[in-house]
Amino acid sequence: QVQLVESGGGLVQPGGSLTLSCAASGIVFSGSAMGWYRQTPGKQREVVARITTDGSTVYTDSVKGRFTISRDNAKNTVYLQMNRLKLEDTAVYYCNAYWPPRTYWGQGTPVTVSS
To answer: Which of 55, 94, 97, 98 has the least C-beta neighbours within 10 A?
Structure first.
């Protein structure tokens, strides 16, 4: 059974930082591309950052220079370090795993940026 368990979300003030974690089980983590997505009410889920099996990363423009995605294959965990958070970063953040040929999702962790 595949499980992606996110943690680390919460309430933070603008300009603050949070680190999200996603612990994976039931997949070959080192063989999986991993990603973070986010969704707000009434909007489509959007990609935030992705990391390939060899560690290459891509980011959506709005988070470049502020967010960093990384992975620890020994711990089967992917991280999203979020710095200089803005009000518009408020969303539910979802972990995503692409272990060919299937895609898996976590349950999501909420991030609220508010003063």
So the answer is: 55
Quote the pLDDT of residue 43. Answer: 95
**How would you classify the pairing of strands 46-51 and 102-105?**
unpaired
Residue 36 zone, left/alpha/beta (φ > 0; ψ -120 to 50; rest): beta
AA letter at 2: V
> How many C-beta neighbours within 10 Å does residue 112 have?
15
Structural tokens at position 80 = 């999203």
pLDDT digits 0-9 by tens, 53-101: 999 999 999 999 999 999 999 999 999 999 999 999 999 999 999 999 9
- Rounded distance, CA 103 to CA 86, Å? 29
Residue with tokens 């999986």: 32
User: Is residue 99 a contact partner of residue 56, using CB atoms and an 8 Å limit?
Assistant: no
Cis omega (within 30 of 0) for bond into 101: yes
- Looking at residue 26, its pLDDT comes to 95
